[in-house]
Write a structure and sequence with these properties.
Length: 241
Amino acid sequence: MNNKLPKLSESEITIHSGISALESWRMFEIMAEFVNPTERLQAVQPAVSIFGSARTPQDHPYYLLTEQIARQLSDAGFTVISGGGPGIMEAANRGAFFGKSPSVGLNIMLPFEQAANYYQDIPLTFEHFFARKVMFVKFASAYVVMPGGFGTLDELMEALTLVQTGKSRKIPIILVHEPFWAGMIDWFKNTLVREGMIDAADLDLIQIINEPAAVVEAIFRHYETRGFEPSATEREMQLSL
């Protein structure tokens, strides 16, 4: 058995070199993708990121609940950030759009599901998921997580991991509609905690709230003794996201 890799031909080396050069230039495109959103979002603080399913129709109770929450957050002075697409994302943008504070959509083009909604005061478009995810976390004073699928769970776990490991400042992470989340929370308690995968105290990072007014109240309560402006230490922490 020959365990050695085959030697590349001269033409193959040329092709690989060309691909390597393209990858290097790609890094500059990625860097540029951070610049404009950073400048725009720094100017509209404090902000709350809202997540949820792209598949939720406009007449669904989750959509209507999200719209109410976003409107109350906007009227209370929070910029509302969503993924800019349909479903819960649209509901979040829609509620904020008719409120007093800006509605921001962090749009990304996908083969299906994602199409920009019309309720965005500040539409920002991303090519890379990871750049978009940084913007969700970096400029959020709170996370409001509505019922959703894999993408919603991805954002939730990202936020929990960053806060748990001290890579991001501690912010309210609020799950809305207890019946939807109860099974996951039970699994956290009965499996992750019991088997030592997380500490019991890690569950305190999560709040479960059902009413729009209570969501707004919980965010204000978190910041009432310190204000929304990040401390110098937290600013330094955010640079390492």
